[in-house]
Structures are given as C-alpha cells and as structure tokens.
Design goal:
- By secondary structure, the protein is an alpha+beta fold.
- The protein is elongated, with a radius of gyration of 22 Å.
- The chain has a two-stranded antiparallel ribbon.
- The chain is built from 3 helices and 4 strands, in the order αββββαα.
- 5% of the residues are buried.
Length: 115
C-alpha cells in the first residue's frame, strides 16, 4: 500500500514554554537553510522550510455556587509556516554543478508536493 505523507530528514520537535523559546527555534531553523546564487537570484533558497507550532492551552473555568463545579478546559491548535524554494529553469538560471543538481531536486520535490 502507498504510504501517505512525506519524510523529513533531521526533523526535530522542541517543546517551548514561551514565545521567546519558539522564536529562538525559528531563527535556528532559518540559519540552517541552504542558499546559493545564480544568474537570476543572488540569494536563492535551496531548501524548503516547514515550521509547525502546536498550541496546547489548559485553563480552569470557575462557576458560582449555584452552577456546576470548576472544570478544566483544554484547547489545541496547529499552525504551519511554510516557505518553499521556488521552481527554476536551468537554462535561465545558468546553474551548474551542485546548484544545477539542487535545481532538479527542488523542481521534483515541488512536483511531489503538488500531487
């Protein structure tokens, strides 16, 4: 049977207790992105980035003496921030060697993501 989804090499999950921790993780991930220059773009991203934020909030609702007792309320959410490397044409970008090979892989991965 065909598997659904995709595999991400070196994927990490980090628990953050506040927005400052989360921003530090985002900045570290951005610093790990590979870039290269070619004829069309001096700062071309050679990788895709997906940053997923899982939000888990638990609060206690209190009621007056005539109502039901206090109850814990949990809320969950998920936010995906996605930055995909753009498709390129080898002929126009004049990419060679490793950058040309990356261009082929970028275009293949975009094709797969679009299916």
């Amino acid at each position: 049977a065909k598997q659904q989804g995709f595999f991400v090499e070196s994927l990490m999950t980090v628990q953050c207790d506040d927005a400052e921790d989360m921003m530090a993780c985002l900045e570290e991930g951005l610093s790990n992105r590979k870039k290269a220059s070619h004829e069309l773009n001096q700062d071309s991203s050679r990788s895709h980035a997906i940053f997923t934020i899982y939000v888990d909030v638990e609060s206690v609702r209190t009621y007056d003496a005539l109502s039901a007792p206090a109850a814990a309320v949990s809320r969950f959410g998920k936010i995906h921030l996605v930055d995909l490397a753009g498709s390129e044409r080898l002929k126009e970008s004049k990419s060679v060697n490793e950058t040309a090979n990356e261009t082929v892989h970028i275009n293949k991965s975009l094709l797969v993501l679009g299916q």
